[in-house]
Amino acid sequence: YRVTVSYKGALVGDSLLTTLRGTELTVTCSLYDLQVNVKTALGAPLQGAVVTVKSQSGYRQDLETDEAGRAVFTQLPAGAYTVDAEYKRVAAQQSVNLSGDTSIDVNLWILFELPLIGPVTAATAVAAGAVAAIVAGAAFTSRRRREVAEVDIEG
Q1: Distance in angstroms (rounded) separating the CA atoms of residues 63 and 70
Q2: What does DSSP say about strands 50-55 and 60-64: parallel, antiparallel, or unpaired?
Q3: N or C: more exposed end of the chain, with fewer CB within 10 A?
């Protein structure tokens, strides 16, 4: 007889049993812990982010990060997983191949959070800076053109 053990949609152990009479069977299962550390752009831990772990077999689990920015998924079968982290509409995704207890960092690139607006990422800040520079440049160019035009009119 072959005894197989499935857990969370994955084969985690199997053993060959030759007789059932007076036999105790121990099946060793390969299960591991995955710690996900969610961080800001400055490396600070991010509390309250939702972390989702998905396997190719269809297993899915959601956890929220604690005050240290950690979400710990316990007793996961070995294999490939997709890790999604999300905090107030800011998200990141990472893949991990679990073959032992593992810890990964996921950076959401949040610089700071504004009341009523939410988190501001590094990409948002760069875009806002570029827009501000363009507006300032346009205002300067417009003002400069007026001065030149006034000089031309008087001259």
Answers
A1: 9
A2: antiparallel
A3: C
